[in-house]
Amino acid sequence: MSDNYNSAHTFRPGGGMGGMRRFGTGEKAKPASIYSMFVRIYTHARLEWPSLIAAVVCVIAVSLLEFVVPQLTRFTIDHLIPNKRFDRLFLIGGGVLGAAIALGGLRFISTSLMASIGQKVLYNLRNDLYRHMQSLDVSFFDRNRTGDLMSRVTNDVSILQQMISSSMMQLFTDFFTFTAIAIYMLWIDWRLTLLLLATFPFMILTTRVFGKRMRSSFRTVQESVADVSDHLQNSLTGIRLIKSFTAESYESERFSERTRKNMDANIQVVRLRAAYEPIIDFLNYIGLAIVLVFGAWLAMKDQMTVGTIVAFIAYLRLLQNPIRHFSRIINTIQQSAAAYERIMEVINTKAEIIEKKGAIALPPLRGHIAFSSVSFAYSNESKVLDAFSLELEAGKVTALVGSSGSGKTTIAHLIARFYDPQDGVITIDGYSLKDVTLDSLREQIGIVSQDIVLFNGTIGENIKYGKHDSTEAEVIAAAKAANASGFIESFPQGYDTQIGERGVKLSGGQKQRLSIARAILKNPRVIILDEATSSLDTESEQYIQDALAQLLRGRTCLVIAHRLSTIQQADQIYVLEQGCIVENGTHDELLRRQGRYSQLYELQFPQTDAAQ
Amino acid sequence: MKPKRILADFFRKSWYVYLISIFLHLISNSINVFFPKVLGQFTDKLQIGGLTRDLIVDYSLLLLVIGVGHVLFNGLAMYLIMYVGRRFEFFVRRGLFKHFTEMSERFYSRNGVGKLLSYFMNDVTAVRESISMGINQAANATMLLVAAVTMMLLIDIPYYLILASVFPLLLIPVIVVYLGPIIRRRSLKVQEALGTMTETAEEQFGGIRVTKKFAVEPIMNERFGKTVEQIRHHQLRLVRVSSFFQALIPFLGAIALVVALAFGGYLTISKQITLGNFVALTLYIRMLMNPLQQIGNVINSIQRSRASLERLNELLSQKSDIMELENAKAVDLSDAGIRIQNLSFSYEKTSNKVLRDINLNIRPGSTLGIIGRTGSGKTTLMKLLLRTYDPPPGTVWFGNTDVREMTLESLRSQIAYVPQDGFLFSTTIRENIAFYERDTEMEYVEAAARHAQIYDNIVDLPNQFETRLGERGLTLSGGQRQRTSLARGLIKNAPVMILDDSVSAVDAVTEKDIIESIQKERSDKTTIIIAHRISAIKHADEIIVLDDGVIVQRGTHMELLAMQGLYATLHAIQEEGSQHATGTSHS
């Protein structure tokens, strides 16, 4: 049943042609088949082959032992009791006891082994998935909702876990039981068996029809889980806002809408299951009826003994057990297949920004950066930059000013190669950004931006983020330079103070200073300050400006600011409007020119102007 | 609160569904009992050669009817039980969400979003699974068990033999009592590990840009890998004990068989019971094995899910520390002044005071400017006004009502708070701006956007106001986000508006326009503006300068400039750049 599920996916929104390239862009994914899911699980599990073999041996031993116990009972009834062998009675008791101990032990070992293999597979899968996400571009995270990604890493992987840890073994044993009994039945009476097998095409057909629907329903379920998780993530992150707007009931309503959708989708699956399993059972009964009618007919024609029919029916019941089990498991398998598909969607998404083969590691930079006729737009929006050229001289401070939305931050993102421009080339020390390794590039660039993200952990850990092997003295020096040591040391635990999720317990300015310390510690050749000081009060800003002045000496620096006080010492100032440079020069030159810059300047410092 | 609340509540509401389902199960099973009987009659008839064509057809049809009946009732029972399980999931999730919205700031600074997400995703599911399939299986197994035991008692076996044989099975409750808590504990560890993993993942997806900037993906992978390793470790510990438990129950069954064989065999040989009864006894003991195994599984899964249930109940029993009084009043803020009297505040009892002896009187319709260093207590003061933290009694007054005696609804719906971070929801711009009144007419949305100076940027976007913002609105620049969030505050047109450093990422020209339009639009309403830049607050009727939690200066812009103090210093520093520049231009 490897690739019969294609049509199950046409319902997905925005299904187009082509393989799975850009997930989240609405392009259609090549469906990951159940077969490929098992192959992948097997490839991971194969590495654990000693455990795998041991587990299989245990399972076979368990089935053999289970066969032994009734034999012992039979032996007691047939031989011991008629022969009055009191002495042997205890021997038999001991035998059963031994068998029971062995059974328990083997069961324990096989479950533990399978669980450990399963956990290993999941561990690898989850890590692969996460690692892959980490390697994807920033634009991937622009396109996809955090909640959705979360649900893939947590929910979808957990669903696979259920299948691997509980259903795989069952599937394996059932398959063997089924084959063994089927062969035995063929040997007893091939006519009846073949007749019985006539119901199988119907079972397969039913399984296929329901399988398709189940998978597409599970797909809906898992998507609705992603929706729930996304809404939850979004509203919990914005909870302060929701509260200050008293929108709690509205959000609860919207949330319950989404969970209701999830419930409905789940109930749809339940319906399918509740219809499918009885149909398979029913087909089993039909098989039995066929055997009865045909067997009776043969018996009446004396072509078969009644004993054979009775035995045959007994075996038929045995044969149906694995089928019934399988019809239960198919549910789990289809659910896992849907989950697996969602996981593969991410894993098969290729980063658009990839190092080309043989990308060179950048040598220590001087820091000359040049944009030549670069055009860039975020996905399908209008162009942010159009045939844009800019040169940052090595070791100099260049400033970009302009109203918000004029493309300043985009320029910073392009230098760090978070995005590739659609047109034009960006070079650093003469190397095109596309020719160098991402690590060697980003290691030498430090960005302090307006979005401050601190991670759970201590203050020290957050500063060390830029350079993990730094010493305590270095951390403290960086904090001093960022004018952060004062407030850090005022905490009882100093650098070991824990900061909550996203550093809620620090004020905006304190967070910003930590993020500056982080960049200072990294000691990069190129520094980009993207509105790094906008949330600081004037005094701290002054301190930081001083610290930065120290730091910037001899490095290439790009300062993005709308507050002109922060950029007056820049060696070169560019004024950006709608993605175009309208003016450039030093502060004095620009003031003298009486253009856009001086207009901005006057607005910002009217008093001084009046005083002059 | 009692530990078993959510489940008990749910059962109280939907016990009849479970009852019906179990009843249907019973019917289905009783129908199934006829199956071997009919089959037996059929073979008997066949053996004596009494079968006719009609009889064959009759028997097959009868068997089919039994089959259909069994299957139908069984399917229905299963559907009901799973359906009700999903209802449970829905109710609990909705309840949790509602509970979350009621919790206070303090709760959120303790619990990360990822951790809370994990409750929804992992714990609710775990409980649901054990109550839906668990109940069915348990019901099924119990029926088989009861049937087997009844039959055992009905045939002519001495009770002491039965008791001796069944005795090992009576040890099951002992094992449950002993191993149950261990399973639960380890299961709790698994759930906690899952929570940590969710938290790490959530944080990482939010902070991916920083990770990329610092090129530390390997470190992040390692960090995440550790949490996954923890899950694996705890899962394996759990599997070990639970598979031990599951192996133990059939083992006890086997012991029962040993006793039956040895003791029963002895009695048979010494002719105290018949061979037939001995055979029947061993058969029935074997019949017990399967349901016992099933019950073992159910107990196992119940123990696991109890850990989750406890986590959920514990979460739900946490009370918000901001509670409305029972007789809380709604106050009309449009002509009520805001009065702060001798307010001192610290976040924790032991920690330093963040605010000290604040006295403030804001007349209705006036504008207050607040300036001060980072960490001087500005935002804390606003949090107390909005009562996201409780101020001490008698310190914050709206009109003549203490803020603690007001309804939260009337307080918060009349204050428009615009935070600094410009948080936007991942939905359309229009929905973000019209967050307060979702069905606000377009013209008002546009007007608010104009006042916040974001209108021109929005109409440049491909879908204008219907443009969907990406995750956390990242396709807008920092300044655009702030202005969108400002428009959201403006459209509320509330009697009181608080701008908490809400224009910091906006350039000087735009800031000036924004301040002007706020002055015009809100001329008769109370406005509080917090800023670092004097340019944003100098028009205020009163300006206070906060330093280290104390009001060090107050007055109008001109008055404060005339005083020697922090305000004048700040002003000088902000001007210094330009003076410095002027200086260099002359040199």
Give an account of the 3D structure.
- The complex is a heterodimer of chains A (612) and B (587).
- Chain A has 612 residues and is of the alpha/beta class.
- Chain A has helices at residues 34-46, 49-83, 86-135, 138-143, 146-188, 190-197, 200-237, 239-244, 248-300, 306-347, 408-415, 438-443, 459-464, 472-481, 485-490, 508-522, 538-552, 587-593, 596-604, 606-611; strands at residues 369-376, 385-392, 397-401, 423-428, 431-432, 445-448, 457-458, 498-499, 526-530, 556-560, 572-577, 580-585.
- In chain A, a hairpin with an 8-residue loop joins strand 1 (369-376) and strand 2.
- In chain A, helix 5 (146-188) packs antiparallel against helix 10 (306-347).
- The longest helix of chain A has 53 residues, at 248-300.
- The termini of chain A are far apart.
- Mean pLDDT of chain A is 75; it is low at 1-30 and 607-612.
- By secondary structure, chain B is an alpha/beta fold.
- Among the domains of chain B are: 157-318, ABC transporter transmembrane region fold, CATH 1.20.1560; 337-414 and 532-587, 3-Layer(aba) Sandwich (Rossmann fold).
- Chain B contains 18 helices and 10 strands.
- Chain B has helices spanning 5-47, 53-102, 105-110, 113-154, 159-166, 172-206, 208-213, 217-269, 275-316, 378-385, 408-413, 429-433, 442-451, 455-460, 478-491, 508-521, 557-562, 566-586, and strands spanning 338-345, 355-362, 367-372, 396-398, 401-402, 415-418, 496-500, 526-531, 542-547, 550-555.
- Chain B has a 6-stranded mixed β-sheet with strand order 6-7-8-3-9-10, with helices on both faces.
- In chain B, a hairpin with a 2-residue loop joins strand 9 and strand 10.
- Chains A and B meet through helix 2, helix 3, helix 4, helix 5 and helix 7 of A and helix 1, helix 2, helix 3, helix 4 and helix 6 of B.
